[in-house]
Amino acid sequence: MSVTLRIHMGHVAPERMAGHDVRVDGRSLGQLSSGEVTEFEMEPGFHIVEVHGGNDVAPMRVHARPGHPVELVFHEEHPGILGLFAGGWFKLVPGDSD
């Protein structure tokens, strides 16, 4: 049985969200779309979800439970040049889930 992983677009321009690679435990699931939500399927258990874009990686540890989608929000943490000095451009944070 698989678990749905939903990555919602937060405070980031759609054109900056598209094309980022989504990985679970180092295995690529695909790329984020420029829509409001991108969905993937993954196995139940504890995992590290990462969004890779350019030189930046946004990681998040999750517990995927059958019957409960994993909801994450991808957003721009430090826009502009500030991101170079603040540890990254993007961040994954927990979203609302049941």
Layout of SSEs?
Blueprint: E1 3-9, H1 14-17, E2 21-24, E3 27-31, E4 37-42, E5 45-53, E6 56-64, E7 70-76, H2 82-85, E8 90-94
Parallel strand pairs: 1-7
Antiparallel strand pairs: 1-4, 2-3, 2-5, 5-6, 7-8
> How much is the radius of gyration in Å?
13 Å
Counting copies of identical and different chains, the oligomeric state is: single chain
Instruction: Provide the β-strand percentage band.
Output: over 45%
Q: Structural class, judged by helices and strands?
A: mainly beta
CATH class: Mainly Beta
Counting DSSP H or I runs of 4 or more residues, the number of helices is 2
Mean pLDDT: 84
| End-to-end C-alpha gap | 18 Å
Total number of domains = 1
For the largest sheet, list the strands in their spatial order: 4-1-7-8
CATH architecture: Sandwich
Low-confidence stretches: none
Give me the count of strands.
8
What is the makeup of the main sheet? 4 strands, mixed
The helicity comes to: under 10%
Q: What's the overall geometry?
A: globular
Under CATH, the homologous superfamily reads PapC, C-terminal domain
Polypeptide structure, described:
There is one protein chain. The chain is globular and about 35 Å long. The mean pLDDT is 84. The chain starts with a strand and ends with a strand. The strands form 2 sheets. Strands 4-1-7-8 form a 4-stranded mixed β-sheet, with no helix packed on it. A 4-stranded antiparallel β-sheet has the order 3-2-5-6, with no helix packed on it. The chain is mainly beta. The protein has 2 helices and 8 strands, in the order βαββββββαβ. A hairpin with a 2-residue loop joins strand 5 (45-53) and strand 6 (56-64). The chain has helices at residues 14-17, 82-85; strands at residues 3-9, 21-24, 27-31, 37-42, 45-53, 56-64, 70-76, 90-94. It has one domain: Immunoglobulin-like (Sandwich). The longest helix is centred in the first third of the chain and has 4 residues, at 14-17.
